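Quick one, tokens below. Sequence please?
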């Protein structure tokens, strides 16, 4: 099994990908572990898949997983997590706003935690005023309704131990709530400050109003799951060893 998998959902990011790979590869090489980088092309309409194929030709540690049509970020994330072969898994964006130099910091917390999720403390440097304010309000509403303490649920720059992702079932839009879903299952999640950089190419694929409406529906689903979560502890299983044989 590979030591580390880096999963990167991609949708129309052909301009960003060369710069991302140029930054990412040296960081991973310096870790001194075996790794793979899984680019998940989410039905891109540009040459993103061709760019990743070129990476693979020069470095076999690069993998390309292509979705037949655009399924959304959750679908691309889910496909990447299922394809990943690493003992530890990092998920990051392809738009250069996540800084690959934060990967060692995220991974270092997996010695004592099951998952480390990014917190864009310096978000003012990477986003406009309206986006920052709307995100702050959305986080407060999410935390209030879900009894959560995550400061930045919109940050998808995360690191996981492989075992905590087993059995994780995602639905469209729920990639934002992976830390909450893991905590519901008893896993330990820590929030770690990470850099947040301005977008250099293209524009965000998600509008503020559409994202807010969808997030509200997703939050209600998470709240329902929290209320309906099965909570029990087996204290005795007489004869269980025979059955398991």
């Amino acid at each position: 099994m590979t030591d580390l998998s880096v999963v990167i959902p991609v949708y129309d990011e052909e301009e960003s990908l060369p710069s991302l790979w140029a930054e990412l590869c040296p960081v991973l090489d310096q870790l001194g572990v075996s790794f793979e980088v899984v680019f998940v092309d989410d039905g891109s309409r540009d040459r993103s898949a061709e760019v990743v194929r070129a990476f693979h030709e020069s470095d076999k540690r690069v993998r390309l997983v292509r979705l037949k049509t655009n399924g959304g970020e959750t679908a691309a994330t889910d496909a990447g997590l299922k394809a990943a072969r690493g003992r530890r898994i990092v998920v990051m964006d392809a738009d250069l706003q996540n800084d690959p130099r934060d990967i060692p910091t995220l991974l270092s917390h997996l010695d004592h935690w099951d998952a480390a999720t990014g917190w864009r403390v310096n978000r003012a440097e990477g986003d406009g005023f309206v986006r920052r304010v709307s995100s702050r309000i959305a986080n407060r509403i999410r935390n209030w309704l879900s009894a959560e303490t995550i400061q930045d649920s919109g940050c998808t720059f995360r690191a996981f131990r492989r075992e905590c992702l087993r059995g994780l079932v995602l639905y469209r839009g729920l990639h934002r709530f992976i830390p909450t879903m893991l905590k519901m299952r008893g896993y330990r999640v820590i929030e770690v400050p990470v850099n947040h950089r301005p977008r250099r190419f293209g524009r965000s694929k998600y509008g503020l109003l559409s994202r807010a409406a969808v997030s509200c529906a997703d939050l209600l689903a998470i709240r329902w799951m929290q209320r309906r979560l099965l909570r029990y502890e087996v204290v005795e299983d007489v004869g269980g060893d025979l059955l398991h044989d």
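Residues 2-127+152-202 form a domain with the Spore Coat Polysaccharide Biosynthesis Protein SpsA; Chain A fold (CATH 3.90.550.10). The two ends are 27 Å apart (CA to CA).
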